Amino acid sequence: MRLQFVGCGDAFGSGGRFNTCFRVECSQGQFLIDCGATSLVALRKLGIDLNAIRTIFISHLHGDHFGGVPFFILDAQLYSRRTTPLTLVGPPGFQARLTQAMEVFFPGSTGITRKFEFEILEIEPGGSRLVNGVEFSAFEVQHACAAPPLALRFTCDGRTIAYSGDTEWTDALIAAGHEADLFIVEALFFEKAIRHHLDYATYRANSGRIGAKRTILTHMSPDMLAHLGDVMEETAEDGKIVEI
């Protein structure tokens, strides 16, 4: 299994980084974890074949995590000429929020007849299922976004990737990341604790309870980026490739 950080920035592009979007390659094909507002640009910059993406999993319904999906769908129809099926997976409320976003950005776009099979799945927190050959589990975390925010866990090829999503500390992260081969964790601030987001100091204090085999920090603010030399864990960079 291989993961590429297509984008690893916070909502505001701190450090010149693209919004959250991770591409995973495994024997079951390719999928994205989140697809933020700038993700289509980032995918194009890296030369990634968009039609090879079978599934897009969304952690929560903020623009820097799902705002690129309307552009991905329209590109599939108008530029990439997609013919292969596309599955979108997100929390409860995903379909309605996506429809609203598409109609705001491109009025009438939801009524276009697509030339590829298209499916939206909404997964309740605590749910687990097989999606296009990838075992997927969702855990509710703590982040204000008017819909249940999720930490995500994926198993494919005998390896497990977990992702915190955006969240303040919650014990749900212990279950989501438990002994994962790779745990991708938000670290918005270095040691400043705020509501709805995770800081590095709090994660570090609890990391032993999770027991992930490898951790990479992501979604970093200017404060956190200024402290990269002060952390023990790996940190994400746009374009970085990780073999798992």
Could you write a compact summary of the structure shown?
The protein is an alpha/beta fold and 244 residues long. The protein has helices at residues 39-45, 63-66, 69-78, 94-105, 172-177, 200-210, 222-225, and strands spanning 2-7, 21-26, 29-33, 53-57, 86-90, 118-122, 128-131, 134-140, 150-156, 159-163, 182-186, 215-218, 234-235, 241-243. The termini are close together.
Q: Helicity level, as a percent range?
A: 10-25%
* Count of domain modules: 1
Helix/strand-derived class? Answer: alpha/beta
Top-tier CATH class: Alpha Beta
Determine the strand fraction and express it as a percent band.
Answer: 25-35%
What's the number of helices? 7
Q: SSE order, as H and E? A: EEEHEHHEHEEEEEHEHEHEE
Gyration radius, to the nearest Å? 17 Å
Question: What coarse outline follows from CA principal-axis ratios?
Answer: globular
What would you say the CATH architecture is? 4-Layer Sandwich
Average predicted confidence as pLDDT? 97
Question: Total strand count, please?
Answer: 14
